[in-house]
Amino acid sequence: MTQHARRRVMALVCAAQTLADPNTQQGKEIREALIAQGPLSPAGVNLALREHLELHPTESELDTLIDVAGRAPHVHVVLSANVFVGALRALALALASSTQVTVRMSRREAAFPRALVAAIDDSTVADCVSFTDSLNPGPGEEVHLYGHDTTMRAIASRLPSGVLVRPHGSGMGIAVIGASADVVDAAEAIADDVVPFDQRGCLSPRIVMVEGDHQRAIGLARTLAEALDERRKRVPVGFLDPDELAERTRFRDTCRMIGDLYEVGEGSVGVARALLIPPVGRNVHVLSCGPNEAAELLRPLTRAIATVGVAGDAHDPLVATVLSTLSRVRVSPVGKMQKPPLDGPVDRRVSEPVTPAAVIGMYR
Amino acid sequence: MSSFDVARSDHLHDRVRAFIDQSMKGETPRDTFDALAVEIAVHQAASGSGVERLFAARNLEPSRLREASSIPAVPTDVFKVHRVACHAPELDRTVFFTSGTTVGTQGRLHLRRTGTYRHAARVWGRHMLFPDALRLHWILLAPPYASHPSSSLGFMLDDFGGTFGASVTWAVHNDRLELDAVLAAVERARSDAAPIIVAGASFAFVHLLDDLGTRTIPLGERGRVMQTGGFKGRSREVDATTLRRSLASAFELPVELVVAEYGMTELGSQAYEGCLRKALQLGEPQSSPDVFLAPPWMRVHAVDPVSLEQIPPGQTGIARIEDLTNVDSAVAVQTADRVQCCEGGFRLLGRAAGAPPRGCSIGVDEILGQLSPEGFEP
């Protein structure tokens, strides 16, 4: 059984390799489609395909993925928009779980899932997947739900009883810089986590907590701004809509008034002693804090944080506190936050399938 | 070097009160709005409240400004994470808190002197809500101010009741609306000549409507309602038009006597719809129920949400507010409330909802849980 699941997952991974390769016909076509679709810049699309698809999972990672996926007679996948590479992991989990997978895509991001399934060489695997505009699961079947919290609630409220749901709501990442970390190295690594998808993924760091004094935070912010500036020349920011730009204006003026702001083209790095939530579009808030303060600041954000990037030692007081406060998140070294191994969902906030009623309660 | 000059602040408070009185008497104020706003901004920049950093970021020298519209506006977000006050905490007379929480924090307005706030609220409240009566029976759909002294709405209603009240009934206790208290208060007041006013937050009115069902509470010919919007998850949401009609029906009033207020904790002044004055034939130029009128000491501009540049009347922008009563905090405040300026006032279109959901990245508003208009008080 596991071998069949592994074969299905690997067929999908091979299809992803085909799309990631800019020299294949499929690789060229998907690039054109994704650039036309937006909002990422052409370089942003290429970066995502080349660096942020999980193209070489280890045996151990596949074992874990198949184990985590469990078994279901039929999996219905509801995909979100924009972080298009997420479709690989979502479909891998579904195919690991079942031979019958029905996919409902976001209207704003239909190109990649279709191209991915079309690129599967093994027709017995490709035939496991069908696309639909509706969602009609039956009792005992699973729904793998990706998207915003409002989507979680809306869809769960329409599901019949007996259906099980694996919800993966919206989120964001934070980075924690322990006392033992080198701030220059950390800043360079964080820049690598901020650039992909222009921060539209739930793994993207938006807040950086720095152990130590304010000057250490300033030092990291300056280096991060320089690193982001260097990267934006290679990978320009894509399209930002007016609402995102308006949020950026507010974030920038807030930082200017209560702290320091480093503008980096379309993005910015703000340093302030209070906790701010920057908007997407390569905006980062850096603050210095101690362990007790961090625990207090993070408490209201617990549900929103999907991942933590760490620089420094796990025994650094700030790192240890953050990881104990946020126990159900994916933890990665900074620089690898956007490259999680293919070993299960990126979001670990809900580990087991739950009833639709439970989903409504979770995302109320 | 920054410092707080008490004498200068007191002098500015006095001049703002004079501006209020002179403008309401139809006199030409000794200070122009722009000159007074700029002087207040200079005072605020000199005190080191943080606004001086916005001046510096825009390469502006406060003392060289001539127009209020050039003063950098402090985003309302800042009030949630930073003390926006010229004076030291030990000089705080009152601190008002916003009702919504933002990642565990609340917006605050620190007042050293409450007299200017109180005076402005009384003068404009009287002008817009009860120009025809010296005393009213106040039925307040809010918890007693004494038990919630951090509510700016409670402060204002308490003052209205104390100053202009034939009677005062607070109808929310232990977070529950007491319908029986409302009914009893109306019954007691109905035989008296003074009009009845029911005032409170929109969500409290929704609870009242739910409790009433098909029953009505006639307020009498001179009755009226003042509601300040926003639901904040405290009741079901009802659109403004439906709420206005439902309240008019429930209190057996013409819809023109249901007046909405626009205010926020971060501001010392309030705007009201002009419909009641029009109904009383007091001749406001704008009387459409959805047009808010700001007092002469408060200006509301629609600005582009990205550039913060002022935009022409009729176009939708976000509200930038200049309020002379904010002597010791921020005379110019940048909200995220969407507005259209029009002749005589402005239309409120709700809060900018933030960036639309994209991908699985969480939106700022989603985190903050503040999709309802921020301009509405508890």
**Which CATH-level-2 architecture of the largest domain in chain B?**
3-Layer(aba) Sandwich
CATH superfamily of the largest domain in chain A: Aldehyde Dehydrogenase, Chain A, domain 2
Largest sheet of chain B: 12 strands, mixed
The largest sheet of chain A is: 7 strands, mixed
List the quaternary state of the chains. Answer: heterodimer
The end-to-end span of chain B amounts to 38 Å
Low-confidence stretches of chain A: none
The strand count of chain B comes to: 16
What does this protein structure show overall?
The complex is a heterodimer of chains A (364) and B (378). Chain A is an alpha/beta fold and 364 residues long. Chain A folds into 2 domains: 2-134, Aldehyde Dehydrogenase, Chain A, domain 1, CATH 3.40.605; 172-333, 3-Layer(aba) Sandwich (Aldehyde Dehydrogenase, Chain A, domain 2), CATH 3.40.309. Helices cover 44% and strands 17% of the residues of chain A. Chain A has helices spanning 2-20, 25-37, 42-51, 59-69, 86-97, 111-118, 123-126, 149-156, 183-194, 214-234, 242-258, 291-298, 317-325, 356-362; strands at 75-78, 101-104, 129-132, 142-146, 164-168, 172-177, 205-210, 259-264, 267-272, 283-288, 305-311, 330-333. In chain A, strands 8-9-10-7-6-11-12 form a 7-stranded mixed sheet, with helices on both faces. The model of chain A has no long low-confidence stretch (mean pLDDT 95). By secondary structure, chain B is α/β, with parallel strands linked by helices. Chain B folds into 2 domains: 6-111, no CATH class; 115-296, 3-Layer(aba) Sandwich (Rossmann fold), CATH 3.40.50. Chain B has 11 helices and 16 strands. The longest helix of chain B has 19 residues, at 6-24. The interface between A and B is large, with 57 and 39 residues.
Describe, in short, the structure shown.
The complex is a heterodimer of chains A (364) and B (378). In chain A, the strands form two sheets. Chain A has a seven-stranded mixed sheet with strand order 8-9-10-7-6-11-12, sandwiched between helices. Chain A has a five-stranded parallel sheet with strand order 3-2-1-4-5, with helices on both faces.
